[in-house]
Amino acid sequence: MHFDLPDLRLLAAIAATGSLSKAAATFPVAVSAASNRLRLFEQRCGLSLFTRRADGMQLTPVGRLVLEAARGVLGEARKLQDTLHELAGQRRITLHLAASTVTNSTLLPAVLGPFLADYPEVDLQLVEHKSVDVLRVVLADECEIGVYDGNLISDGLVSLPFRTERLVLLVPADHPLAGREQLRLIDALGFAFVCLPGERAMQRFVEELAMNLAMPLKVRVRAPSFEAIAQLVAQHAGIAIVPETAALRAEQELAVRWVALEERWATLELRVCFRGWERLSSHGRQLVSFLAEQ
Fold first, then answer.
1. In whole angstroms, what is the distance from residue 152 CA to residue 129 CA?
2. Beta bridge partners of residue 242, listed in sequence order
3. Which residues contact residue 116 at a Cβ distance below 8 angstroms, ignoring those fewer than 6 apart?
4. Under 8 Å CB-to-CB from 165, ≥6 apart: which residues?
């Protein structure tokens, strides 16, 4: 059975206005042309979609079902049109991705390049939050997609696995703790620390852990990145808590060693979260699929 999108648009316009003449004016086409298009559509369907009355046109029960399906087709057509415009470079797309310090600083920069190369029309905004706030901003529709610590409950969100990362203690190669295979945070709190700036999400998390142990962190110096922190640790400015990914890289280049932290909070089962597949933009779906495959 053949139909065109104008058939469906006319059907929706008549249903919205209750009048063939008003619907025809929205296209615009002559009333006779609109009437002929509707008549042919009904003939091809073998259905009567409207009841013609003196005061206008009213959908039949069958017509209401056809209208519901037609609206779905028209919605998908609009999405396709938007996607074609985006791919043709006629519109820039901005995706907002909320993630923790660890994810933004170590994992995402290493994997996002191929996605951005495949979709040059996308501008990606990375927003840093603590994991609990990642969940909050995604639930509030302030960010379309988030990456958070999967140990948290994500009620109201769809959640997919992303990566596993560990926080470890980074120390100079000749430090008293360098020979330990693992330790607890409290074992290290007597030493001075090299830290991220105080407003960074991960740094707030670590300092809250120390406060909960009644031993505030001894912050000797703050540095802007894990790379800068590793340089300072190698120069005996202090010790630091960093992601294992950053620690392994630093150990290859500098006179530092890393020690595992045995607390449960040190293992981050990172997950991708979003409100729902149908709520994502077409590019948002591609980004979620890409991250879930990493």
1. 14
2. 168
3. 122, 124
4. 102, 103, 106, 107, 243, 244, 245, 267, 268, 270
Alpha-carbon distance of 23 to 9, in angstroms, equals 9
List of E strands, 60-131: 93-99, 122-128
Element (H, E) at 208: helix 201-212
Q: Which amino acid is at 224?
A: P
Q: For residues 237, 240, 246 and 248, what is the CA-based torsion angle, rounded to 10 degrees?
A: 80
The candidate with the shortest Cα–Cα distance to 236, out of 213, 219, 255, is 255
Cα separation of 287 and 115, whole Å? 7
> What is the average pLDDT value for the chain, to the nearest integer?
91
pLDDT tens for 177-216 read 999 999 999 999 999 999 999 999 899 999 999 999 999 9
Cβ atoms of 119 and 283 closer than 8 Å: yes
Q: E strand or H helix at 136, and its extent?
A: helix 131-139
* Mean pLDDT within 39-57: 90
